[in-house]
Design a protein that fits this description.
The protein has about 110 residues and is mainly beta. It contains one helix and seven strands.
């Protein structure tokens, strides 16, 4: 399932790295991204659901990076990242900006 994804935290740093999902399960996600987060480190990412609907729904996820491998996608260098999905919450699109600022550090 290919859905828009954005890494919002990698380790203790706030980042904004876009990507898209390749595979999702109840325990984790495989996605492509322009940057490789630290393997074994905490990660927070937001998957956008219902992209075509009247109101986007975002799934904010917290997990751990299992692996990150360099790959080529659509002629660009990218990273294929596998991460666990340990906690998640649904957020509405207009709440996303406010809530991302208020997210506590992972650790």
């Amino acid at each position: 399932m290919e859905l828009p994804l954005s890494i919002t935290r990698a380790g203790a740093e706030h980042v904004a790295v876009p990507g898209f999902t390749k595979n999702i399960s109840s325990s984790g996600v495989l996605f492509l991204s322009g940057a490789a987060p630290d393997t074994g480190g905490p990660i927070e990412y937001v998957i956008t659901l219902n992209c075509e609907g009247p109101q986007k729904v975002n799934l904010r996820c917290v997990g751990k990076v299992l692996r990150a491998e360099r790959t080529t996608a659509e002629g660009r260098r990218a990273f294929q990242v596998a991460a666990t999905l340990e906690r998640y919450e649904f957020i509405r699109d207009r709440e996303r900006e406010r809530e991302l600022v208020a997210v506590p550090k992972l650790g």
